[in-house]
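Before drawing any conclusions, I looked closely at one protein's amino acid sequence and its backbone structure tokens, quoted below without any editing.
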Amino acid sequence: MIIENNSMGRTLHALDLIAERHKALSSNLANMDTPNYRRKDISFSQYLGGCANPLETELASKMGPSPVTIETTDEKVNPATELSEIQKNSLLYTVAARRMTNLITEMKTVINMGNG
């Protein structure tokens, strides 16, 4: 299997973006009883939507309409919704981390074949 040009960098960026969304979602739970707190979320599908990788396309379809913006809404924080979104985000992180592991394994294979 050939590693796509800069796919490691894109996967790393996806991991970073997913981590930032996780911070926003967990902040919503932590502040749900804070007066005048506005729910936050991070959406970055336009960034990922232009990528050809199936992982990135899947992430783009799951994460919302705009690139890396912290969106605030007037809606009240619903703990069940936040926990559900955190679980979905955790699954996406797992998929992205596996993709990174596969890329590293492919690179090691290529290096070892060159040394043999």
Remarks:
- The longest strand covers residues 39-43.
- Residues 7-105 form one domain.
